[in-house]
């Protein structure tokens, strides 16, 4: 207001020109510069001029900062749309809306399910460990773990690797990303090693509406005990964008849990093997005829019995054989009604 009073002494044409630039603080600041440039007498003391310039300089800085922040918010976002388990089970990041289109880069609707994961918001209790989305608000870790467990948990590979798809909506959703893992439902986290990185420099790139592979390796010996079944881990990945960080949490089970879960299922056919072995056990029954072979051999063994008549043939032939002694004679004596033959 004091500045307007000082400008009242300027010629009417100058005042008209200057008034057209007084719609905002920035335009007011430009008004002063314009008046000085055209050399109009403003009757403004050096004190008032310096005070006014300082005031509007601060206003300009605030305005530019807010404008920059808004620009960052519009041109930033990246989220995990898929996790592919080594056990063949697929999942998605917390808060992901399956119907969200992935072929654009505008804020609405393409950014609606991107998570903003800020440490200060987590520490203050505004959000849980997995941040918030525009569409769903706070990502409730307990509810998200329960839903993921109900749908089936993807598993890490034998070396602890977790394979994910990072969808970069626009410029500030780029890499590099850092990941950490919680085995206790989001209470504590341990650093994971990113082995396949999303391209980018300081979380910026020119990519838009693009999918990138993101692979992170769980710490060795990581025990997954979270979730309703006590077998879930949370992998959390995010970049370092100023308007973010952006990223997602995903639910995963460890390789040991997946192997233990698969073992009983694999053992069922093995348990059925004895049933398949029943015919094998019946093989002895088939072997009965083989055992009966000796019975078939009985006639062969009986062959000697059949040979008895053959052995008897010489006996029968003893009376008619041409080999009897022609000069022999039966010598005997009467002995109680029968003959004792002798040769």
Describe the structure.
It is a single chain. With 343 residues, this protein is an alpha+beta fold. The chain folds into two domains: 72 residues, no CATH class; 177 residues. It is 41% helix and 17% strand. The strands form three sheets. Strands 5-4-3-12-11-7-8 form a seven-stranded antiparallel sheet. The longest helix is centred in the C-terminal third of the chain and has 66 residues. The chain is globular and about 55 Å long. InterPro entries: Egh16-like.
Please summarize what this structure is.
This protein is 41% helix and 17% strand.
Write the layout of secondary structure elements.
Elements: H1 2-7, H2 12-19, H3 25-38, H4 46-74, E1 78-84, E2 90-91, E3 115-116, H5 119-124, E4 132-133, E5 137-138, H6 141-151, E6 161-168, E7 178-182, E8 190-191, E9 193-196, E10 210-217, E11 233-238, E12 246-252, H7 255-320, E13 334-335, E14 338-339
Antiparallel strand pairs: 1-2, 1-6, 3-4, 3-12, 4-5, 6-10, 7-8, 7-11, 9-10, 11-12, 13-14
